[in-house]
Amino acid sequence: MSKKNRIVLAYSGGLDTSVAIGWIGERTGAEVIAVAVDVGQGGEDLEVIRQRALDCGAVEAYVADARDEFANDYCMPALKANGLYQGEYPLVSALSRPLISRHLVKAAREFGATTMAHGCTGKGNDQVRFEVSFTSIAPDLDCIAPVRDLALTRDVAIDYANKHKLPIETTKSNPFSIDQNVWGRAIETGFLEDLWNAPTKDVYSYTDDPTYPPLPDELILTFEKGIPVAIDGRKLTPLQIIQELNARAGAQGVGRIDIVEDRMVGIKSREIYEAPGAVTLIKAHQELENVTLEREQHRYKRRVDLRWGELVYEAQWFSPLKQSLDAFIDHTQGYVSGDVRIVLHGGRVTVTGRKSDTSLYDFNLATYETGDTFDQSHARGFIEIYGLSSKLAAARDVRFRHGDAFEATK
Ligand code: ARG
């Protein structure tokens, strides 16, 4: 008997990917290896998920604890880049796909698989992120998406699970499509597809309603070279810091986001996010950059940050340009060290203090009190020369009776 092909499936433990195990086997004749990656999504015990994959017919099932790796190598670069797509979305799902892909490829090598599989539909960004990541890491591997390519719709999945008595709940229908990890939580579909519908309470799980918050929560975040290293002087890992802030900022309702987003496939979609830790960290990090980055480097970095976020959103985590921007961003973080004091309250993160040995803030230059070392007599000459080209252009406008300066004379 010839050896069967093997397929590695990105397994979540949910209905679709549980059914996909048998479905892929029947349609392709291949053996399925289920791989689940822990990126801090919480919920079910991963050993339960692993056993379920085996019960659903996987020949191998494997669970990777990638929480620290995710925090260190994916969330921290996103923080250094102040990564916010469309100015608001902290790239929660976009960050996890490349990491999950890496673990899937590792499993493919280990178990001799030639094909990768994921449970994404054909309408979203995640299919692109998985497949572009796979090709970027392992160009020799193929990929199939049973929901998209093998007609595995929701109804079909429910029927299949019932018929084969798969150990998975099919009755509890969640109206939303949810993806979550330690950097945040994404909620879409269901009644949220009507843009006018306000999110209801049951949409949220990482955050409490900010309307009636507990007392304000003040804390000091310490950064070293752009990375948070302590809360109130307690040394913690990036993962621990994100987790603690998720709890504390989440209790204050910080980090709720409701936006219409431009997807890669061209459609606009309504997305709700909750990212209390990420939003808090980005706010504090940006403020420390305000204090420590030189003006021109800072202005330029804001544009790089924007592009970095777009690239990561658009499945380019492993691309050459993204890697080059990482190098630029890393270089800028050399002096981004110090303390930021913040207050979390009623859905808001407020910075109330900053302190840094590598600050560019010079009290004596900035002060209006005694001790001023800024020589104001230089300002006149500076402005004279700085404004010279505009002055020449304005004079020409008047001569030729044309343009803004002339209009102003009328
Ligand atoms: N729209 C967001 C993104 O593209 C969230 C995706 C969430 N994924 C999901 N399967 N529900 O990053």
TrEMBL record:
Annotated Arginosuccinate synthase C-terminal domain residues: 176-392
GO aspect biological process, one term: urea cycle
Binding site for ATP: A10, Y11, S12, G13, G14, L15, D16, T17, S18, G119
Localization (cell): Cytoplasm
Chain positions recorded as L-citrulline binding sites: Y89, N125, R129, S177, E261, Y273
GO cellular component terms attached to this protein's record: cytoplasm
Domain Arginosuccinate synthase-like N-terminal: 6-167
Residues binding L-aspartate, per UniProt: T121, N125, D126
Enzyme class: ligase
The UniProt record lists the keyword Transmembrane helix: no
Keywords: Amino-acid biosynthesis, Arginine biosynthesis, ATP-binding, Cytoplasm, Ligase, Nucleotide-binding
Catalytic activity: L-citrulline + L-aspartate + ATP = 2-(N(omega)-L-arginino)succinate + AMP + diphosphate + H(+)
Pfam families: Arginosuc_syn_C (PF20979), Arginosuc_synth (PF00764)
GO molecular function list: argininosuccinate synthase activity; ATP binding
Xref: InterPro entries: Arginosuc_syn_C, Arginosuc_syn_N, Arginosuc_synth, Arginosuc_synth_CS, Arginosuc_synth_type_1_subfam, AS_cat/multimer_dom_body, Rossmann-like_a/b/a_fold
EC number assigned by the record: 6.3.4.5
Pathway: Amino-acid biosynthesis; L-arginine biosynthesis; L-arginine from L-ornithine and carbamoyl phosphate: step 2/3
Family: Belongs to the argininosuccinate synthase family. Type 1 subfamily.
Subunit organization: Homotetramer.
HAMAP family attached to this UniProt entry: Arg_succ_synth_type1
Record-given protein name: Argininosuccinate synthase
